[in-house]
Each structure stands twice: as structure tokens, then as C-alpha cells.
């Protein structure tokens, strides 16, 4: 059994059984056995089941949100958005069975047709930072394309995934088509990688573990989608609306206490407005409401665990701290929003993913300098560009090596647009109109006439 702790209070809120290796194998075998039937369910019937699942999530949304507040310390506002995201992603991909159309390709001497065949069993490995959305981004398109799915939530945050498993059954999804297996990454997650019946692994987590997963999958040339770390830039040009850029910058990085692969954790500001920007940023950071995640007014909750707080704290070199926001005293894994003026571009706060409420602010000279600094990282997930010059916005967007960019905004995730990373931020794309295709193999059939 694993004890689940509320990170805002340090109180144990649940005990969850850990799936063993034998139980994982048994679950994968059941998923494999369920596949031929699920694959052949008529498209409208599969859509109907996924819509019913979405409806069940909708009915249970407040309960799911409250569970996430107590398990993950997410603010209630964020947790409600996350439950809504599960409903929306399920609804969106419920239509996918009708979209997975093959092609008929003109050829001499016959007829040529392609089929998008589902893969079989798909294993989805989920991190602790966004337990609901990241799970559904994997399992909804996989199910819609006709695969059966086993999901491994993070050991720290299994509660909402377990509840989603119950809701799927209540909605009528066959039990073996969608199974949630709480447990250890080294046991359950690793088995998804090594078990030959698991035909694809969707992994979201650290780049370090992602590389191990990719190497493990290579043994069987297993399909893999990787969503890994980020060290994303928020570039503010002198021609931008500086007030708005400064007012929103804290929310681009401190949302979910910075435990966000898309956190804009490097603010790059054109030198001519650097001092003015910092003057505006300070009250914005100090105004972030940190505290009880269950309170409607709260904007930032705690970190996930004591160990993670120690990891975040290890990045802080006090002389470089420019200013900080607030954090409650007492129980809970709190860490204040922290703004750092690095002493060198090689400081760890600049080069490594902190995954906490820590942001660096650095000056750049011109457009070329901004692009060079932005791309000076092995990561390439997201980023923001603040400018009122449309040409510049497009030039910089094209030059930045990252999968998800926003201009005059910090938004990264929309279920109807593709999401994923360049370089060591990942492999493949989730969400958007093509995500279900990533859970199929293209088969070409030529019929001689
Ligand atoms: P990890 O430590 O990599 O863990 C992620 C998941 O993988 C957990 O469920 C973990 O299980 C499991 N796992 C660990 N070792 C494994 C192994 N050898 N084989 C199979 N599974 C294994 O990451 P984390 O600390 O939970 O999450 C934070 C990281 O995820 C950050 O780097 C962040 O940037 C990244 N992230 C990326 C994205 C996107 S979309 N790109 C989104 C969110 C987070 P346990 O429960 O045992 O730990």
C-alpha cells in the first residue's frame, strides 16, 4: 500500500494498493484479450461509450476537482479546469472513429487502399504534476482509435486516475478495455516497456526517465510518444505592451507552483526596458495569492512533496534572488514565488528545469540575441513572445526551436491543437486533430484487377 499525502497539510488522505508485477502482467493479458472485440466495435458505438464516459466525468467534475486539490495541492480553479479538460478531450476524440479514414490511391493495374489499424494494448505512464489532463491526452485518442489501454498514474497522485477508472466502468466501457494500475514506475511502468503485448508506450515525465523508456522500447522497436521537460523562455521585446507582459509573467511560470513542463521559467527582456520591466514585475509577483488550494482566491498552492521542495531549494543561491512573493508558514510543502537575476548564463537556474516557482530574468540586446538565448538549451517545449510587431512575432516564432509558442499570451494547451516538444522535450505530438492517428499503423493493400 502507498500512503497518499495532501501536500498542503502533510496529512495522509488515502492508502492505495501498489500493483505488483504479476498483477500488471495479468492486466496486460486482459487488455490484449479485449482488443479484438474493442477494435471491431462499430464507430458510432465506440463514440457513444466515450461520450458517456465524458458525461460521467461531467457529473463527477466537482468531486474529481476536490480530489485533485487534496491529492496534488492544485488550486480549486485549476483542478476544475483539469476535470473539464478530461470531459472535453473525451468528447473531442469521441468523434475520432469517424475521422480515421484511409485513402484510396490511384495505381495502375489494380486498386490501392490504406487502413489505419489500431495497435493493440497501449500503456500510458503519467507524472504527478497534471494527473488528469496528461492521462486523458494519452488514453482518449488511443481508445478512440480502437486500442485497449492500461494507465499507470504517478505514485504520489493516483486518486483522480483511480476515480476515472471507476467512471469509465459506470459509463459502460468494458472493464478490460481501460484499466488503471496504480503502482511504482520501476514495476508497472517498466513492465509496459518490456511486455511484448504492449505495442505503444506514452510517457510523460522527466527527460532522464524518458531516455530510459525510449532505450527500453528500442529493444522491441516499440512505438513511443515522449512528453518530457522544458526550460521555456518568455521573450519581452521593447515594443511590447510592457505593463501586460509584466503583469502576466508570474502566471506564465508560477501556475501549478511552477510544476509545469510549459512554465516560462526564463524571462528574457530587451535591455532598453529591463529596469522598467523589473519594477513592474516585483508587485505582480508579490501579488500572487499563495495558500490554501481549496480557497477560490488562491492562485498558487504547495509543491508536491518535501523531497521536491528540497530539490527546488537546492537551486537557490541567495545573493542572486531579486525578490520573492509570499508563502504560508506551518505544515505543507510551501515555496514562495522567487525571481532570480542569475550571475552567469551557466547558472543552474538558467540551464536546468527547476520545476518549481523560480524564474530567472536576463537581458538581451536585439532579436538575434533573443533567439540565440532562447535556443541555448537542450529543451524545446514551449515559449512566449511579447511584441506588437507582427513581422517580428512571426520571424521569432519560426526561429525558436520549440513545439508550442504563444504571442502576447502564455497559453500552451488547447485540446484541438497539437502539443509536444522539439529536441529533448519529447517525441511525437499529443492532442489536436491527428492525435488518434498516432495510435494506429498505416497498412497499405494493393488489389490486382
Ligand atoms: P518522472 O520521475 O520521470 O516520472 C514520471 C512517471 O514515470 C511516473 O509515473 C513514474 O512513476 C514513472 N517512472 C519512473 N521511472 C520509471 C521507469 N524506469 N520506467 C517506467 N516508468 C517510470 O517525472 P516526474 O517527476 O513525475 O514529473 C516531472 C517531469 O515531467 C518534469 O521533468 C516535467 O517537465 C515532465 N513533464 C512533461 C510534460 C510534457 S507534456 N512535456 C508534462 C508534465 C510533466 P513513479 O510514480 O514511481 O514516480
From TrEMBL:
Keywords: Oxidoreductase
Domain of life (superkingdom): Bacteria
GO MF annotations in UniProt: oxidoreductase activity, acting on the aldehyde or oxo group of donors, NAD or NADP as acceptor
A Pfam entry, by short name: Aldedh
Residues of the active site: 227
Span of domain Aldehyde dehydrogenase: 3-445
Gene3D superfamilies the record matches: Aldehyde Dehydrogenase, Chain A, domain 1, Aldehyde Dehydrogenase, Chain A, domain 2
Keyword Oxidoreductase (UniProt): yes
CDD domains xrefs: ALDH
Family to which the UniProt record says this protein belongs: Belongs to the aldehyde dehydrogenase family.
Protein name in UniProt: Aldehyde dehydrogenase
Organism: Antrihabitans stalactiti
Lineage of the species this protein comes from: Bacteria, Bacillati, Actinomycetota, Actinomycetes, Mycobacteriales
